[in-house]
Amino acid sequence: EECQDTEKHGHRDPPDTDAMRLTPPPSTFAGAAARSLSAAALAALLSVSSITPSVPPAFGPAAAQAKELASGSGSRVNKDPISLLRLALPRVSKEARELQAGLEECQDNLARLNGQVASSALQKAKVAAGKSGAMLKSVPPAKAAEAQAALDTINAAMDEVGAKIAASRQGEALAATERALGAVTQLQEAMASGYAQPSPPKEFASLPYLKGRATVDLVLQPGKEHGQFDVEGKLYKQLEVKMVVDGYTSPITAGNFVDLVRRGFYNGMHIQRSDGFVVQTGDPSNELEGSGADAKKNGYVEGGKVRKIPLEVMVRGDKDPIYSATFDDDGRGGYAAAMPFNSYGALGMAREEYDPDSASSQWFWLLFDSDLTPAGKNLLDGRYACFGYTVDGARLLSDVKEGDIIASAKVSSGESNLVLPTAPALAVAAE
Predict the structure, then answer these.
(1) Are 379 and 191 in contact (CB under 8 A)?
(2) Which of 318, 346, 369, 391 stands the most exposed, by the fewest C-beta atoms within 10 Å?
(3) Are strands 301-302 and 305-306 parallel, antiparallel or unpaired?
(4) Listed residue (337, 340, 334, 257) closest to 299, CA to CA
(5) Residues 164, 166, 170, 174, Cα dihedral to 10°
(6) Contact status, residue 68 vs residue 335, Cβ threshold 8 Å
(7) Contact, 128 vs 188, CB < 8 A?
(8) What is the pLDDT of residue 428?
(9) Sorting pLDDT into bands at 50, 70 and 90, what band is 30?
(10) Residue 44 — very low, low, confident or very high, per pLDDT cuts 50/70/90?
């Protein structure tokens, strides 16, 4: 079946945009699942238009390791944005994945104060680390020294983890495990640096795209009626969050976002929706209420018209994203996404319900709740583009309200990975 699936989906031309338009679903849904709280919440997600969800079939790839990385299978959900970002890196060796899985299992069990199981997981990680030769073969020569240094850090940290577990000092063992996992990220990023990322399909040549990743730092300030942010009883005059956007799995979506950030498009913009499920912004027409502005141009205007980007989603294990179609359209509803909406503060691109290629500048943070989007029932994966995660300050988003202000949004690293369209491509798009 895996061979059959690869043969069917591994090498395909970009789908015809017009042919792959979403067919409007029926206005009523059979079954209690469609009337569930999760469906109701998702149906009210976007101000661009509502999502009309349908529960994906319960099938897909076999369950994976490393904190249950599948978004469409299994009983546990990997909510760790750093882990999810590691799992989305391309060109990572099997041995490095085994090392990651062992250390993440150790980390999980130390957090649960289960030292015995953590110790067993640590041994699995040490076995994987013993295959350093195989891992270093996956690293480009220019990154070999960096990868070796990461492996040295990992081995030293694992020795410390074992000693701390033996001494029943699990808090210190957990800290050492996190240092080891930080070095695993460095090792895997060194491997991914050798990935020859393909350009998006030619029909999207007029759009910017991102090669690799970039980091965006964003500062939020309370609106006039908000006063101060109150997060679990602690007051803040402003909130600072750090987001990593991923061009490996969603190059156009991530590139469009990074381009708008670097232009200052979001600076001073208000939060336009906050309902406890999503925090959404990016509609300039909402900022011009009463000004007589064209309300239909609710996106970034370039050359006199709104710049729109295609729906861009990717099945875990695929080499390229699917364009202008959902997983369901592609015959793979319920499959695991390469970048699932699993983490609190996951970044999603808003679009119109029945037009997959209608996104422009509106995006949202998903305030993930496993009760609303449990494993195997995630109604966003494969339907909307998840293009990154909030890696620092995600929980601060819980008190962000409509009317709060994005004081600044800056690309702090990775701007050089942004590929801008050439003048001929822009001229063709304008025609």
Answers:
(1) no
(2) 369
(3) antiparallel
(4) 257
(5) 50
(6) no
(7) no
(8) 53
(9) very low
(10) very low
Length of the chain: 431
Closest CA to 209 of 167, 248, 158, 152: 248
Sign of CA dihedral 286, 419, 409, 427: negative
Residue among 76, 88, 83 at smallest CA distance from 99: 83
Q: Which two tokens stand for residue 325?
A: 């179609």
3-class SS of residue 4:
helix
What is the rounded average pLDDT of the residues 343-367?
A: 96
Q: What is the pLDDT of residues 97-156, one digit of tens each?
A: 999 999 999 999 999 999 999 999 999 999 999 999 999 999 999 999 999 999 999 999
Sign of CA dihedral 44, 49, 54, 56: negative
Mode of pairing for the β-strands spanning 239-246 and 386-392: antiparallel
- Percent of the chain whose pLDDT exceeds 70: 76
Q: What separation, in Å, do the N-terminal and C-terminal C-alpha atoms of the chain show?
A: 45
Tell me the helix, strand and coil percentages in the chain, rounded to 5: 35, 15, 50
3-class SS letters over 18-47 = CCCCCCCCCCCCCCCHHHCHHHHHHHCCCC
CA–CA distance, 262 with 255 (Å, rounded to integer): 11
For 310, the token pair is: 């295609």
Beta strands 418-419 and 209-210 are antiparallel
Measured between alpha carbons, how far is residue 134 from residues 86, 189, 192, 389 in Å?
19, 16, 15, 30
pLDDT at residue 288, as a whole number: 56
d(CA 276, CA 344): 12
Q: Residue 363: beta bridge partners? A: 281, 349
User: 256 or 425: which carries more pLDDT confidence?
Assistant: 256
Query: Is residue 61 very low, low, confident or very high in pLDDT (cuts 50, 70, 90)?
Result: very low
Global pTM reads: 0.82
3-state class (DSSP) for residue 349? strand
**Lowest-pLDDT choice from 76-85, 338-347, 416-425:** 416-425
> CA-CA distance, 337 to 387, in Å (whole number)?
11
Q: Give pLDDT, residue 304.
A: 87
State how far the Cα of 330 lies from the Cα of 323, in Å rounded to an integer: 10
